[in-house]
C-alpha cells in the first residue's frame, strides 16, 4: 500500500520510548539505511525527558483499573501526544538538526494495560493492549509522519503483542559465531535469544518477569517517597537476600511458564510488591534485606529463565544487559554470580547504548513499517504469521 522510500538513500528518524517504569520518555535521533536484515541504525543523539513526580503518580493511577476512568484515559491520550512531540522537538534541537531534516517519528506509546489473555469467562473482552500518546497529535505538532501503535497488529494475528524488541535485536545485534542473550531490564525484564548466526526462524524471546518495577515500588515505599529507585543498587548492596521470601516469590507461576509469554504491571505491579513488603515485615526483615531480596528476585528470575527456558534450546556465550537496570551494580553482580559460565556485558560494550537501545529499535520498527517490511517475529510473539506492525498518522 505504502510506496515510501527514504528521499536521500537514508532516513533520519526520531524513535520514542516511554516504558513500563513510567520514568519518562526517551527520544533517539537515528540515521537508518538499507533494508531487511541489512538495515543499519546509527544513533546520532539521545535525549530523555523525565516525567515529573505528579505525572508519574497520575500514570500509576491510570494503570490501575480501580483508580482509572475513561475521562482521564481520553484526555491523557492526547496530552501525552503533546509531551511526546515536545521530546521530539527538543531531541532534534539538541542534535543540532532542524525538523526539515527529519523524515518521520516512530513512537512506542505509554502502555496502560496489556491483556494478551483476557480473564476466562469475562464477556466482551478480546486479547488487547493499550498504548497512549495520540499519533495524530505528535504528527500535527512535529509536522512529521508518525508511526506507532505497533502491538495491536501482532495481537490481531494471534500473537502476544510483545516483546517486539527481538525483531530489532535480530537486525542489529546478531553475531556470526557467538550465541547472545540480550536482556533488557526496564520496568519489566525481557530477553531476546540470538543463536550464533541467527536467522529469523531461530530467534526467540519473552518477558522474564519484573525488571525494576518491584525494586522501585519497594524502595519508594520504604523511603516514604523520598527515593524513586535504588541508585547503583547501593541500598541492596547493604543487605542480604532472604532465601525464604525469595523462594516464596519465585513460586509465581509466570516464571516457569514456557514462552511465548509477556507480562506487565497487571501481574507484577503494586499488589505484587505490596505482598512482598507484607511478607518481609512478617519475617522481620530490615529495609536493606527487603530491597536485596526484591533485587535478587529480578536476578533469579532472569538467571532461571536463561538456565531452564533458554539454554536447553540454544548455546549461549554471552548475556548483554540493557535498560535502566544495567545501572544497578548489585543486580549485575547477582546475575554474574548466578550465571558464572557466561560473560555479562552491557549493550554499550557491543555498540548500542544501553539507555537508548529501545528508542533506537522503535525507530527501526517504524522504518520497516514505512518500507512495507513485516516487522514482527511470529516465533517470539506466537503470532500465526508475519505482519506489518504499526499505524501511520500524517501531519
Ligand atoms: N542509576 C541507576 N541505578 C539503579 N537503577 C537505575 C538507575 N537508572 C535507572 N534505573 C532503573 O531503571 C528504571 C528505568 O529503566 P528503563 O528506562 O529501561 O525502563 P522502561 O523503558 O520504562 O521499561 P520497559 O523497558 O520495561 O518498558 C528506573 O525505574 C530504575 O529502577
Ligand atoms: C505491553 C508492553 O508495553 N510491554 C513492554 C514491557 O516492557 C518490557 C516488556 O514489558 C516488553 O514486553 C515490552 O516492551 C518492549 C519494548 C518490547 O516490546 O520488546
TrEMBL record:
Keywords noted in UniProt: ATP-binding, Carbohydrate metabolism, Kinase, Nucleotide-binding, Transferase
Biological pathway: Cell wall biogenesis; peptidoglycan recycling; Amino-sugar metabolism; 1,6-anhydro-N-acetylmuramate degradation
GO MF: ATP binding; kinase activity; phosphotransferase activity, alcohol group as acceptor
EC assignment: 2.7.1.170
Domain of life (superkingdom): Bacteria
Biological processes annotated in GO: 1,6-anhydro-N-acetyl-beta-muramic acid catabolic process; amino sugar metabolic process; peptidoglycan turnover
Broad enzyme group: transferase
Amino-acid positions noted as binding ATP in the UniProt annotation, renumbered to this chain: 19-26
Catalytic activity: 1,6-anhydro-N-acetyl-beta-muramate + ATP + H2O = N-acetyl-D-muramate 6-phosphate + ADP + H(+)
PANTHER family: ANHYDRO-N-ACETYLMURAMIC ACID KINASE (PTHR30605)
Family statement drawn from the similarity comment of this UniProt entry: Belongs to the anhydro-N-acetylmuramic acid kinase family.
Purpose: Catalyzes the specific phosphorylation of 1,6-anhydro-N-acetylmuramic acid (anhMurNAc) with the simultaneous cleavage of the 1,6-anhydro ring, generating MurNAc-6-P. Is required for the utilization of anhMurNAc either imported from the medium or derived from its own cell wall murein, and thus plays a role in cell wall recycling.
Designated name of the protein: Anhydro-N-acetylmuramic acid kinase
The organism's taxonomic lineage, starting at the top: Bacteria, Bacillati, Bacillota, Bacilli, Bacillales
Recorded name of the encoding gene: anmK
